[in-house]
Amino acid sequence: MRPAPHTLGRRPPVRLGLAAAIALAAVWAATTLHLGSSSFLAPGGLDAVSDFLARAITPALDYERAPPPGTEPLLWKAFRAAGKTVVFAGAAMTLALVVGLPLGLLASSAWWVEARGGRQGWRNRLLAAVAPAVYAVTRILISMMRSVHELLWAVLLLAAFGLNDLSAVFAIAIPYSGTLAKVFSELIDEAPRDAARALRGAGAGPVQVFLFGLLPAAAPDMGAYTFYRFECALRSSAVLGFFGFPTLGYYIAASFENLQYAEVWTYLYVLIALVIFFDWWSGAVRRRLT
Amino acid sequence: MSEARPHLELDGVTVAFGGTPALEDLSLSVGRGEQLALVGPSGAGKTTLLRLLNGSLRTGRGSVRIEGVRLETLSPPRLRKLQTKIGFVHQALSLVPNLSVLQNVVAGRLGSRSLMSSLRSFVLPRRDEVERVYDLLCRVGIPEKLFQRADRLSGGQRQRVAIARALYQGGTTILADEPVSSVDPARARATVELLTSICRESGLTLCVSLHNLALARDYFPRLVGLRRGRIVLDRQPDQLGKEQFMKLYRLSSHELRVRP
Predict the structure, then answer these.
(1) CATH for A74-289, among 1.10.150.20, 3.20.20.450, 1.10.3720.10, 3.90.550.10?
(2) Using a CB-CB distance cutoff of 8 angstroms, which residues of chain B are in contact with residue A127?
(3) How high is the ipTM of this complex?
(4) Which of A200, A220, B138, B218 has its CA 20 to 30 A from that of A89?
């Protein structure tokens, strides 16, 4: 029998309406924020900006104003701050990986479907009963960790624990664990499952199926993403210096407040060099992995 | 284990997927060391039958026995233990693409290992494990691929790795679902010859589903023809007339009609 053409599931013309709604939202946002030609610069702002940018070609190699005797040289201080930035980022990423990996596993539907398999038995029936709850709770937990920015976590943790190095590490690690878990779960779910099924059919247990059938296919992308997040952690670690942690941000803020723009540029260049170096390094590793 | 008992046995098995029957009241017994080819049009239930035989699919009605043990009554750990004895060569390429051939073959024995020892054999395989895998790769004709990544191999080479993995399990049975559907005719013939000769030498029971009737006829002493979930023929190839093949493959007017 020939079905009538209008029953074939053509979608109603929603796209046009959607586009119009987005355009309206944009106009409304612009008028609410008074985005006009007049409201761009603070008085004297242009001078400050050009002053700041002018120093970009002459970053400071030594202090602009003589420091108290016994102060370490500027460049040495910049390098030490860079080292601290890497240490904070590294510690936070390590923690985020340790927490994010199991969370990502629990938040992936592939783990619940493929590794457990369609087997019978009381243990599996119990698992099947709790699985939806564990899955849902994990996803909610991940969203909560992710939706609060690391700077907000830093404010919270500073209030609770004071200017403790661990506060900074946790402030980065909590939202990063959530992001890693979310992306890991998606990568695991997208990985081909044929191999996992084959191993299960050959009598492998659920953890073995997951570790050897499912995880290896997702691992290169998971590794590459972890490297990318490490770069982000470097930036976050530097910014946390604004709260008083001894990373690059701390010195950038101090020099900026004293209007020592040449010093600001020194620290900025060190940060840029750091990010470029890790970008190059992660690129090299990614090329080897995939 | 008494020799009188068939090695693999299906008794009055019915399987349905969402109301559509895939197998209907089907009975089949396969002796130890026997080699049989399942033939029939696609959708006849060949894959379903093979998946029943390795316990990855459960019957709706009827029973599946392997070495006299009913699969339906087994606890998951005991079912896994039984599954370690059954190697399955899949239709889809079921290797882990970014692991080496060695690691893929070693994975065949996961079911009989603890988690720690399987981790060890993945990361640091012992010398005797590597040599055993190398021997198997020699037998399937690709020894030089031992340390290559699986995704660098051709379709035919991957199929050979899958066969080596099934053999590495060290079981009693090899099941293969369309093992030559992704390779050219000459290689298909070579692969089927390889499978049958290895299983004959080692006394393994072999069940293979094949699209290619000529191959099935040339290499298997027993053909089982499936059509719409039922066995329509079961005999030796030299007893088969053209008529019976026609009966197997001729499409009925019902099947030719396009469904809405």
Answers:
(1) 1.10.3720.10
(2) none
(3) 0.85
(4) A220
